[in-house]
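User:
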Amino acid sequence: MKKLPSVAQVRVSLKDGLTILDLKAGNTTKLAELRQIIKNNGFVSKEATVVAAGNPAADQRAFVVSETNERLDGLAAPPERTGNDWRFVVRGPLKP
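Assistant: Predicted structure:
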């Protein structure tokens, strides 16, 4: 993760099973790409707490990220405004 040009900082808590990524402003990395990297390294991607610029869908169950136009479906709750950005939780991928 540290090798990605869009990543500013990585913090890992093995005790809590968390990886915290701080991405650089204006990055174009998609959540789907991050989940794939996590999977390729033998880990399971679960829910993700996201702070991003963009727009929530009318039904508040999805969010479209400004820089990438990535549509994030499966929000755990409606997005909350934090300054100029939005904060929300995206559920983990469904198991096949």
